[in-house]
Amino acid sequence: MWRKLRACSLGGGVLMFLGLALTVFDLGPHGSSSRTAGPGSSGWQIVEPIRYQNLTIFPVVSSENADTSEFATLDEALAHGDVIISEQGDYLRRTREGRIPPGFSTGPQVNQLVLVNRGKRPVLLLAGEVVSGGKQDRIIGKDRIVPTGAAPLPLDVFCVEHGRWTGASDQFSAANLMVHPSVRLQAALEQDQSQVWAAVRGEAKSVGNSESATVRTTPTISRPALAAAIAAAGTQDYQKIYKSSPIGASVESVTEELGRRFDRATLLLKGERVVGVIAAFGDEVAWSDLFASSELFHSYWPKLLRSYAVEAMTRPGVGRTASLDDARDFLRPIIGHLEEESEPGVYEWRKESVDRLSEIQLTALSPRPVTLHYLRALRSGQQDFIVP
User: Fold this and answer.
1) Among candidates 101, 160, 170, which has minimal Cα distance to 133?
2) Among 49, 86, 151, 281, which residue's beta carbon has the most beta carbons within 10 A?
3) Is the pLDDT of residue 138 over 90?
């Protein structure tokens, strides 16, 4: 099935084209083949970007819209009580089981929780979503779908609250928060707990940052500001550092302005719906989150936007911005090392990497095949900023 991703202006003038397909082969002008993956079936367009300070957002729109109403988001399911997430030991005490089920432990585990879906809809989980409570706040470790009526799930997670191992309750609630891409990268792609902690502290390499760039401004969220927020929090708590501290107030201000600009720009669209975005930090396109429907995108957009703002504010300004050509090039087809996982009849998870580009595709298999989420990231390179 062919589909085209086109970059155009909001005025309707087509500027560029990028062949994009759902696992297809595209013969180039010289007979070469290329492959990529993405959600939806056809009609994607990249429209003119929204820029503010160090962040450029390229909306991706489509005239087609999949029906994703059969799926619940994690925040929605937790808020309605349809999903319960708890520490492992707490789950075993509450069920009073005399045996330990496969994959479970008798006590709390840093990198594994228990999830029970009691609702009537499958639940979509995205890597980087924060759940609050228990012994430590955690983030989801990998995109997946949890079906209805499933057995309690051993849920892979990463800690984002180094320094606490106590709590009034072993259960978790929705934080309505997504960690910023440099942290999310370490969870979703690198699967490295130590690097997740380092990224929370601002000590891990950021997404992208492969080329030398002249620094025009220092990061809004500086290393001293991060150190002060961590000291005030008492633990390396992601929420306290990036949301409840003075840093959080700065992030909210930037997020609100970006949100206003995004709303104004996308109101001009006619017959198209926003289904995702591509994000550039400084002059480097480094991240994208694309969805099967506008409704699903808008469910995640507030916390995704905030996460992109945090990422941009932790990086120095370089005096240049990314272009539509850069956004097109970022989504160029790739063929690389392929990893696949699946739960029969529920979902398929697919990761493909070549050089510093990686993409993850999550496809629901029931009630019909649909790619719910597509992520592409530019993995960390050598950060080499030049101060004039």
Assistant:
1) 170
2) 281
3) yes
Tell me the per-residue pLDDT of 67-77, one tens digit each, with 9 for 90 and over: 999 999 999 99
Give pLDDT, residue 301.
98
pTM: 0.84
- Region 200-227 average pLDDT: 77
| Rounded Cα gap, residues 166 and 345, in angstroms | 38
Instruction: State the residue for tokens 């062919």.
Output: 2
Task: Tell me the three state secondary structure of residue 182.
Answer: helix
Cα-to-chain-centroid distance, residue 35: 22
Which residue do the tokens 């001009």 mark? 268
| Least confident span in 40-49, 54-63, 220-229, 355-364 | 40-49
DSSP per-residue string spanning 237-291: EHHIIIIISHHHHHHHHHHHHHHHHHHHHHTT-SS-EEEEEEEEETTEEEEEEEE
Q: Is 185 left (phi over 0), alpha (psi -120 to 50) or beta?
A: alpha
CB atoms within 10 A of CB 318: 20
